[in-house]
Amino acid sequence: MNFNLDFFVRTFFLALAGLPVTVGLTACTLALAAPCALAFALVRMYRVRFFDKAVALYVTFLRGTPIVLQILIIYSILPSALNAVALRSGWKLDVFAVNPFWYALFVFTLNTSAILSEVFRSAILTVDRGQLEAALAAGLSHFHAWKRIVLPQAFLVALPNLSNATVNLIKSTSLAFMMTVRDVTAIAKIEASYGYNYIEAYLDIFIVYALLGFAVQWAFSAFERRLGSWRKKALFR
Length: 237
Description:
The chain has helices at 5-16, 19-45, 51-64, 67-89, 100-125, 129-137, 142-172, 184-195, 198-235. By secondary structure, it is mainly alpha-helical. The protein has a domain at 29-156: MetI-like (MetI-like fold). α6 runs antiparallel to α7.
């Protein structure tokens, strides 16, 4: 087997064209999943009747099943279900012409919200409840006590796990090609199919995701150090 260096280099730069899709899918997923995850965490912590058990089942199911299966099931069922609803409602909507990016976003948001809900819940539980009670006793409203006292401390504790969740999400988005999303993986695989140069294409994908994962981990580490320094300055004022 001969390694085609020219194909390897050319495909690497072609694959980079799919990087905005990968980064955009990751960013949009986090933007949608994070507030949902926080709401789920609070529902479980406060044991909201009926909803807490439903959320617990949701989290357990999505965390306990492979995301590949979630993609296969949702991408097989969702377009057909939407099409049936559109036909019954008389909507002039061709659901099969919808950009597959939105289907991918839906799947990854469901999965990530379940994962982040446990990250947030565990981080919030590390904050001493006495601080919340002291804030309420000092006259702060429940909302402001959470906003100013509990959540900032919980966020700092959650940062390492948020970093891991983000890196795992980036790696998971490589499966978006199964929904015909033209991301890094899809572009490289399409190029490889013309001449069966899959080894070179897979190495290209490996390098792109390795560099992207390293960049995300570095950014989170730098942010965590910055927050730590701000916290120390605040304590010694």
